[in-house]
Predict the structure.
Amino acid sequence: MLREVAQGGSFAAAAEALCFTPSAVSQQMATLERGIGLTLFDRTSRGMRLTDAGAALLAHAEAVLTRLADAEVELDAIGRGDSGQLRIGSFTSATSTFVAFAMETFRKRHPAVELSFFDGEPYESIARLRAREIDLALIFEFDHWAAGRDYDGVAVGDEAALECTPLFDDPFLVVLRKDHPLAACSRVTLDQLACEPILGGSPWADELRVIAGLAGLDIQVDPSCCATGFEAFQVFAYAGRGLTLMPRLALGWLRDGLVARPLEGGPVRHVKAAMPATSYHAAPARAMRELLCQVTASGDPAAIACALMPSQHVSGHSDATLTRVAAA
């Protein structure tokens, strides 16, 4: 209840989350404060704010709840034997390229395991791992941007609490109109981008700025275009607003009229399989991690998808399309 009050910012929010009345939550928190002899909340016009004592107790409460969740997973695994459940988190471009097909391969090999999937950015999956809402997650990080940072730059998760298995690197490519002068280049350099308007957002745009700065270059990212997906930036690039960047995993969505060119020294996403470092890892989670290591061993996820997926088309992209992406 303490955690719900802290997260929701009020007794009413905690009551709604826990199906209690607000007065019941208020009474329980008052009982807790009397029991420890310290004030846990400051009542402000903006809601409940944790005192130092409340923040300290919350950290212990979260640790206790995490250990209880771990115990439940372990006992459930012992009771189910070869069956059980596996909850996976992944980011969209990995899911659409190879994770969904890896899950189906896993399902065929382990039909007794109940599979469930959660889409989210790396920091969201890390939060779910921390809360033990998922067992394994596909995440990525940059050299200068940790996976546990949200896209406003705020740290919301600690990677030190994770057991991460590196899978492969996912480089970004420059995406531009076919009639752009740089489209004739087989590769684009960072200094060539210094004179071009770049459309993009966090975290890769921030990584690009850092890389350029280390190289003594000033690359400008146009702040007037804000979007949550690569598709929107593509449209603006096609309209002639500027250039953009896309990771190799996302190039299956490259629209007609645009081309992608490798960027020398550009941002690279380091893709990993993450699991909680201190918890019990049930057999299904360990088996899926091993499968992901096997299918990504070549470092060519697009080719992996071609091998895993059914023939014909998946998500609107043919095997030939993904093969061309891999070649690029």
Q: What stands out?
A: Residues 82 and 141 are 33 Å apart (CA to CA). Confidence is low (pLDDT under 50) at residues 311-328.
